[in-house]
């Protein structure tokens, strides 16, 4: 990504929206920018951009986006009579009209742009192939949810939490958090056998396959991380004697210093298994002197479910809500959350460590 790209420009907001499939009705047209500037940006930074050509939004989304673009461009004041919309934009839009726009929304590539304050870098991409429906294949894990963006931003502002660590992610979903953590570890430089490691886990083989495919996309920095592993992990095993023994063996292999999870408690039935696996992961003896901690980001859809989570986790572990002062520019620059199904709901991040809360 170009270092000189102005992240605060009105045109840049078009790039964010297009890359993350924000409906055109939610986008703002750059009314204070000249025709030539808008036209050049649309052509070179969006339509002909090598990354977006290789990993484009769905054709259905592109159809609506370019229709909206053409309408707005044609309505702009032009200082020069020769100012015309490039025929490549018209031709691209025409090529999309033959695609079926009925039925459920198709899968699509979604791209976010990120950087962290510890790294003097141009913007990096985090690209995912994800479902655009709430549930697909019997799981919600094929779509990226708001809490994953929130926890990713939290870690990008605090890279020391995962750099050089053995990181375990519970419920890895589409792989966004894994891509960001792997990127942080890559730039920190220590990805030796005893240094940075990342284990992505989920109960669904379909989700694990999607996460692995996304993490390994060549456009993502995570694709060159040598120590990313994947494992099936059923939280309910932590509640059963035989399952707990098998799970303990896996955790001893992973040897996690840091446990991460985003949007894990969307149903009260998940609370007890999650609390049990967190307790086990934070307590497993590995011979390492490094302390263990967990950071869990939860979207607050139901206050009663949250209260139940805090009660159950607090019986065996210390759980602290983090009150963050993260003013300033975002480190996950994406328009995706403007249209996400859970955008109106708050996200809270909790730090969980061994030891129960004081009486």
TrEMBL record:
TM segment ranges: none
Domain of life, per lineage: Eukaryota
Entry protein name: S-adenosyl-L-methionine-dependent methyltransferase
MF (Gene Ontology): S-adenosylmethionine-dependent methyltransferase activity
Signal peptide residues on this chain, from the entry's feature table: none
Pfam families cross-referenced by the UniProt entry: Methyltransf_16
């Amino acid at each position: 990504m170009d270092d000189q790209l102005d992240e605060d420009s009105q045109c840049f907001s078009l790039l964010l929206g297009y890359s993350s499939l924000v409906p055109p009705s939610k986008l703002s047209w750059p009314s204070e920018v000249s025709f030539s500037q808008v036209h050049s940006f649309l052509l070179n930074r969006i339509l002909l951009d090598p990354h977006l050509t290789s990993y484009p939004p769905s054709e259905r989304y592109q159809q609506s986006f370019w229709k909206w673009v053409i309408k707005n461009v044609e309505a702009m004041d032009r200082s020069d009579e020769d100012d015309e919309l490039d025929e490549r934009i018209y031709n691209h839009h025409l090529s999309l009209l033959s695609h079926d726009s009925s039925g459920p929304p198709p899968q699509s590539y979604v791209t976010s742009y990120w950087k962290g304050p510890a790294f003097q870098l141009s913007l990096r991409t985090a690209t995912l192939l994800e479902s655009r429906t709430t549930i697909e294949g019997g799981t919600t894990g094929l779509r990226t949810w708001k809490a994953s963006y929130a926890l990713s931003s939290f870690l990008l502002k605090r890279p020391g939490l995962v750099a050089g660590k053995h990181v375990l992610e519970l419920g890895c979903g589409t792989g966004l958090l894994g891509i960001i953590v792997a990127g942080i570890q890559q730039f920190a430089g220590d990805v030796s056998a005893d240094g940075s490691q990342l284990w992505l886990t989920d109960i669904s083989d379909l989700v694990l396959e999607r996460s692995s495919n996304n993490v390994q996309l060549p456009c993502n920095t995570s694709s060159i991380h040598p120590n990313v592993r994947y494992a099936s992990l059923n939280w309910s095993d932590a509640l059963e004697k035989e399952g707990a023994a098998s799970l303990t063996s896996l955790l001893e292999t992973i040897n996690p210093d840091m446990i991460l999870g985003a949007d894990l408690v969307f149903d009260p039935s998940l609370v007890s298994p999650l609390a049990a696996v967190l307790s086990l992961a934070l307590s497993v003896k590995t011979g390492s002197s490094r302390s263990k901690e967990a950071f869990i980001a939860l979207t607050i859809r139901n206050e009663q479910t949250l209260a139940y989570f805090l009660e159950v986790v607090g019986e065996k572990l210390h759980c602290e809500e983090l009150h963050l002062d993260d003013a300033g520019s975002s480190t996950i620059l994406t328009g995706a959350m403007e249209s996400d199904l859970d955008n109106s709901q708050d996200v809270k991040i909790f730090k969980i460590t061994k030891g129960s809360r004081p009486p």
